[in-house]
Amino acid sequence: MSNSAIEMTNLLYRYAERMDRGDLEGAAALFRHARVKVSNCENLLDEAGILLIWKQHVKIYPCGTPRTKHVITNPIIEIDDASGKATIDSYYTVLQATNELPLQPIAAGRYHDEFERVGQTWRFCFRDYSLLELTGDLSFHLQGL
Predict the structure, then answer these.
(1) In the chain, which residues have pLDDT < 50?
(2) What distance in Å separates the CA atoms of residue 6 and residue 141, rounded to the nearest whole number?
(3) CATH topology of domain 3-135
């Protein structure tokens, strides 16, 4: 795997890690230079918009986390070094366990991400966050829907 591919897949994994730690601000910061498509919003969201949605809907437990594990797999990486653009299509599965909910998958879908290289650094420039395909019991994860 090239250094560029590693750098971009690490961005995918940093997103998962920050969400699972309950660091919604840190996860949103990864999209500072990006636009995010969500299913129930016609407009593309920026960092502040996606953070607002997460703060309104993601349940954070007293431990400071959403009690989830985001597992990102099957990345299909396409890099155009000449233009400094790239895409990654990947799968995600969200696992959750709480005192009331035994460990189980609660959501699965796909991410379509676009990246741009600025200088020597890759960053998100677009995410399609609307590709939720399978759901389980989301009642311990999402609120206010």
Answers:
(1) none
(2) 30
(3) Nuclear Transport Factor 2; Chain: A, (3.10.450)
Containing 111, the helix (H) or strand (E) segment is strand 104-118
Residue 35: φ, ψ to 5°: -120, 140
Rounded distance between C-alpha atoms, residue 81 and residue 74, angstroms? 21
| Residue 43: per-residue pLDDT | 84
Nearest to 134 by CA among 92, 100, 101: 92
Query: Taking the domains of the chain in order of start, what are their residue ranges?
Result: 3-135
Among 145, 114, 110, which residue's Cα sits nearest to residue 131? 110
Query: pLDDT tens digits for 45-72?
Result: 999 999 999 999 999 999 999 999 999 9
Q: Please tell me the distance from the alpha carbon of residue 131 to that of residue 145, in angstroms, as a whole number.
A: 17
